[in-house]
Structures are given as structure tokens and as C-alpha cells.
Predict the 3D structure of the following.
Amino acid sequence: MSFLDLIEPLKQAAASDLRAAPDLAALEQTKGNYLGPQGKFTALMKQLGTLPKEEKPAAGKLVNQAKVELEAVLVERRAELELKAALPKEPTDFTLPGRRRTLGKLHPLTQVTEDIVRAFRKIGFAVADGPEIEDEYHCFDALNTPANHPARDSQDTFYLDTPNKALLRTHTSSVQIRLMEKQKPPIRIIAPGRVYRRDNADATHNPTFQQIEGLYVDKHVTIGDLKGTVEFVFQELLGEEVQVRFRPHYFSYTEPSFEIDFSSSMVRKMGKEWLEIAGCGMVHPKVFETVGYDPEIWTGWAFGFGIERIAMLRYEINDIRLFYENDVRFLKQF
Ligand code: DAH
């Protein structure tokens, strides 16, 4: 076999070995086997010197070409393997919770809110948001609450000193309207947020507190869906033994309307059988008409409940003001 005939098969063998290297260490090893000082390809190059003078130029050219090709294969394979080495060994699980912070803590109300949001997310609810400075239209009129309603009295609501009668929202129900104004049904959202009322502070009232609003609009939505949803979420939050009951009530933006009571060992510890926890109902047809949904086609339910209430039950706290004093000795415990 002539010298020229040796080049191509060796190049092929080297290229295929390089491409087959399973990791960077193996690649370096293979490179050494062919191109290192004792390598097979290096040996071939050394033989060039022993060739007759007239064969040298053609042979030299071929060997060099082969070497350039092998170096290209090497660079390519190295890049592939470096990328592979940089990827995580296990596939990334994007559903895992985030890392816990190493410094400081989340406020207990934030922790409870996050748990509530997590429970609703499991059953397909998205999170919506709205402004804390509202107007009378979104807070009251669009929710079918007439001008002579006591909630609209400045005794109950904080009005801002502005010509358009801006106010601090008294409930998160205003987010329902804002959302339906800009989105077509179906809708499945919750809206946590801060609300304000002119309550004098005592153990169970504070001029600002947090609510979570829920709104579900689709075809053929029933009170059964509402009850199942509420039951699921409360059991996620406060344990399997929690029971829920609906009591008829009145809200201007729902018909029929209910108050939701719930019962658990914690409630019994407080010396009660049932504790009122939320308001809810089927969205009033007038509310749908106001936002331009056809009430003959769309049905829906809504609810609203106080987050502090749930936090107080969960942590067995009997004074709502503790959440707002930000005493580090209190906050440290969560
Ligand atoms: N907005 C009511 C409150 O602040 C709670 C509420 C009741 C919200 C009924 C609703 C509802 O969405 O349907 O007390």
C-alpha cells in the first residue's frame, strides 16, 4: 500500500472516533491517540520525511488537509460536549417552589396570601389586580350599589379630596368590574389586595385590611361549582376536617347571595360552632349588562373574603392589629 492510500482511512477513523467521544475527557484522550506526540496521525506525518522527493509535495498537501479537517471535527465535538456538560443532569422541574430566602421573612399575611393563591392556581384560577384608589363607578355603581347605600357614606368610606370623588376601595369587588370591562368571558380569576374602611381600630377591625376576590364566568356555571371550589380551597388551607356551609344573605351584585360559614376544631376552640368567613353569590344580571356581557348567555359566581380572618385562624391570633404594628418580636414567629 502506498503512503497516499494510508491517509484517507486514518483520517476517517480519527474523525469517527472523535465524533463518538462521550465526554470531554474521552475527547482529549482520542485527540492524543491520533494527534498527540505518539499519535497515529503524527506518526504518519513523521513518515513524510522518508518519502522520495517527488512524492513529498502531493503527500504533504493531503496530510495537511486531513489534519485541518480533523481539527475542525475536534473543535465541533468539543463545543457539543461543553454544552452538554453545562446542562443540568436532571431535567428542570419548573413547578418546584422557589428557594427560601436566607435573610428575613415574608410577612404572615403575605405567606397566607401566597398559600391561598397556590390553592386556587391548582384549579385553574389566574391572579388579577386593580387599583386601590378607585372611583365610585367601579366600587359601587357598576356593582349595582345605589347612590343612597350606606357604604357610599363618607362615614364608611375614605374619600380623597379630588373633584372626581376618588376613594380608597372598600372591597376588591371593583376588580371584577375592571376585569370584565377589558376581557371577554370565560373568566376565572382571583384578586388579592388591600382595602380600606373607616372602621375604628379594635381587636377585629382595622382601617385597612386585605381581601381576596374571586370571579368565575362561563356558560352553565352553578352554585355547586362555587361550593366545591370554596370547600377545596379551605381544606387546602386549614385542613381536611374543615366544613363549609352557605347561609342566604344579601349583596347588591349577586343574586342569590350567601354568606359562607366554616367550622373546624379551631373554630370550636374559640367556643363557636360556625364562623362567618366570606360573602358570595351568583353574579347579578345587572352587573353583566353593565359590563356588556349578555346575561342570557353567561352565568357566573363571585366571592370575597378577608385574608386576616384566615391568618388569625391559622395562627390562632386574636388581635388583627398585630399584623399592622410590625413589631419584630411578633413577625419573627412566622
Ligand atoms: N365585597 C364584599 C365585602 O367586602 C364581599 C363579597 C360578597 C364579594 C359577595 C363578592 C360577593 O364577590 O359576590 O364584604
Summary: The chain has a mean pLDDT of 92. The two ends are 82 Å apart (CA to CA). DSSP finds 13 helices and nine strands in the chain.
